[in-house]
Amino acid sequence: MDFVPDNTVNKLILLYVLDKMEIPLTENSILEICSSQNNWVNWMDCKDLLSQLITSKFVYKPNTDSDENRYYITVAGRECLSQFYTRIPASLRDNISHFAQENKMQFKRNQEYVAKSYKNEDGSYTVDLKILEPLTTDSIFSLKLKTDTRHNATVACKRWRELAANVYEYIYSRIIDN
User: Are residues 30 and 46 in contact, defined by beta-carbon separation less than 8 angstroms?
Assistant: First the structure.
């Protein structure tokens, strides 16, 4: 017989995911983790339950107009989870913990290291590379590059997620840490 969680267990699953990922997550990341990649919580339920967790102050979402708000578990959410986490089946807790351990850095890079490109009037491309503050959508580092082809712009955007931390560290050390 398959395990069919109720809404309370689904809320605990969301709290458990936020706790184990140990980083603030965007709504899209939460939906991807819980619904698209793992089918732990139905997509529509996930959106509704996330809203309920915010209302009950177990999850915090900053009040900004950005589409990329980061959600994170509150102290009250951690206390609730510590009291009731055993209602999540042990095999599912292990699955979530393993997923978080394997994928945390990828989600961190995808959320914090943002790269976009757009075509200029002269046919060249501008690549806009940013590192965003983890708890907000404020940019702590921004770099714009002009490339001659779409291919180069695409390559720069793809490589940014892997190289952003090193680029930032290099520039910071050259400018600030003399």
Answer: yes
Position of tokens 């899209």?
28
DSSP-assigned beta bridge partners for residue 72:
60
110: nearest Cα among 15, 177, 21, 44? 21
- What is the phi/psi pair of residue 169, to 5°? -60, -40
Extract the tokens encoding 143. Answer: 């770099």
| Domains contained in the chain, CATH given | 7-103 (1.10.10.10), 112-175 (no CATH)
Q: In this prediction, what percent of the chain has a pLDDT beyond 90?
A: 65
- What are the pLDDT digits (tens) for 48-74? 999 999 999 999 987 665 556 788 899
Instruction: Give 127: exposed, middle or buried? Use CB within 10 Å, 0-12, 13-18, 19+.
Output: buried
Mean of pLDDT over the chain:
88
Q: Which two tokens stand for residue 175?
A: 């400018």
Is residue 71 within 8 Å of residue 21, measured between CB atoms? no
Mean pLDDT, range 7-12, rounded to an integer:
92
Residues in the chain: 178
Q: How many CB atoms lie within 10 A of CB 3?
A: 9
